[in-house]
Structure formats: structure tokens, C-alpha cells
Amino acid sequence: MNTLSSAVLPPPLKPGARIGVFAPSGAFNPERVAKGCDLIRGWGFEPVEAPNLGGVFRYLAGTDVQRTRDMVWALTDPGLDAAWMARGGYGLTRLLRGGLPERLPPRPVIGFSDGTALMSALWQRGVVGVHGPVLHSVADLTDPPSQDHLRALLGGDGAAQLDGHSLVKGEVTAPLVGGNLCMLASTCGTPLQLDARGCILLLEDVSEPPYKLDRTLEQLDQAGVFEGVVGVALGDFVGSTLPTHDTWTIEDVLMEHIGRLEVPVVAGLPVGHGARNRAFLHGAPATLTRHALVLEDPR
Fold first, then answer.
1. Is pTM, for the whole model, over 0.90?
2. 25, 113, 186, 240: the active-site residue
3. Catalytic residue among 204, 208, 240, 296
4. pLDDT tens digits, residue range 184-238?
5. Is 165 labeled as catalytic in the residue annotation?
6. Could you say which of 131, 136, 273, 282 is catalytic?
7. C-alpha angle 214/116/230, rounded to 5°?
8. C-alpha span between 26 and 23 (Å, rounded)
9. Active site residue 282
10. Mean pLDDT of residues grouped by 10 in the chain (299 residues)?
């Protein structure tokens, strides 16, 4: 279990910072990633493409060897100030079988979705990542408030209040970890399984029918991921819809599992695969209140 006192925080980026763009997961649309790069150029940063960026191998953005080399480059190259995932999808767990590089210079590492596995791997090493939009979506699929917040976070001001609604009342302050529900479930029983003891656990997902959400929550529960969790923050579950005649809700499915924990729960938070995708420092402290998740930035 990691604590903030032992965590390595990413330093704020200064104008002109060089950001390594790498694709450790699925193949991507080059035009959309180019739009993301144009956006961050407008923020005063310089995107630098990984040597194998643009590769394609089946449904992946290159072979495992190519993607691993690019990931190591993005995480360790001394000429870079940050590392930003081009896209999620699938593929990171294939690269993390051997763990992360031994030396990890402090830098923002930005991603989500399939990047949940990378956030978990960094957290195991006591490194705080940036759970936020990938370049594939940041320019035209992310709303302006989320873009503005991400820009502020990268500059050193990631504090924010994310409004939602309470499902279980209470207040708690703890490190905020987690991410995509299906990705967290896929790491159960592997060395990448998230240790969320003493933490607030954030969960979000996209286009998963209710029975699959139920199944993945059951898997997390039986694998012990919920053990020691002190609060739960529920983001967007985009595309997880019910037939119109049903009287139960997605929240009912979630709370059947999470309600047993008897910890504060706030739902409807603007984090996930929709246009609302506020970035947060994965592993930094946050506070669950009666109706919100308050993000802290201890840098």
C-alpha cells in the first residue's frame, strides 16, 4: 500500500516542455491524434512522436516489441518532460508483463481507459500518474471545461471540485486511484492487480451492459480489490443503458456490490469516456464529500 508521503509527484510542465507521444495500446486514427497534438501546441508544449508511432499490427499500434520500446522511450528519455498516450483500446497489459523500467524520471504520464493498467503499474512503484484524456480524444471529443482543467493540472494546478450526488453519505480524504472498471477486472489475479487499501476507488466504464458491470464488480470483490477501500467515486458509465421498460438503474447494479462496503459513495462524477473527462493525479489525495469529489494538488 502506497501513501502520499512516499509517492513521486509529476512536476508541473513549463512552456516549451517536450511531450513524448506514444501508442502502447490500440491502433489509432492519425488525424485525431494530430488534432490532439495541435491542441497541446496551442498550450505551449512540443509533442515529440515516438520512433514507431503510427505502426499497426492487427488491432494494435505495432508489435509488442515496437510498442514496448516506445513506452520505455516515453517514460525514460532524458530529452522528454512528459509522456502522453495516443489512444487506449487494448494492449498495455501485454507490455507490462515484465514490469516498468527500473528508473522512472519524474514526469507526467497521461492516459486512461487501457491506460488504467499503466496507472496501476506506476502506483505500485509509488509514482503518481495523470488519469486524463488521451490525444486521440482530447481535441474534439473532450469538452472545454475538461480541456481547461487538464491544462491547469499539467501546469501545476490540478485542484478542483467535481460535483456529483451522494449514494452513501460520509466524508473521507485519501489517495484517489482506479479508473476503467473492465481494465481493473482484467488485471485481477495478475501482478498488476490494483492495491486500493486506504484509498478512494474511482470507477468508470463505457458501453458495457448491466450484466457485464455486475460480473466485473463481482470479480473485483472476489479478488479482494475492494478490501480496505475507504470511499468510492463513480464516474460516467457512457452507453450502459437499460431497456425502457425496466424500473431499476445502473446505479442499482453498482450499489448492489459497492453498498456492502459501508463507505462514502458519490456518483455522477465527470470522469470517463464521455465529453466530461476531468483529469486527476492518480494517487494524490482527494476528498469525498456529501455531493462532490474534491481533488487536491499537493505539488
1. yes
2. 113
3. 204
4. 999 999 999 999 999 999 999 999 999 999 999 999 999 999 999 999 999 999 9
5. no
6. 273
7. 65
8. 7
9. no
10. 76 98 98 98 98 97 98 98 98 95 97 98 97 97 97 98 98 99 97 97 97 97 98 96 83 96 98 98 97 97
Pairing of strands 46-49, 200-206: unpaired
Written as nine digits, the cell of 24 is 502502447
Could you give the domains of the chain? 4-154 (3.40.50.10740), 160-295 (3.50.30.60)
Annotation says 273 is catalytic = yes
**Is beta strand 109-111 parallel, antiparallel or unpaired with respect to 265-267?**
unpaired
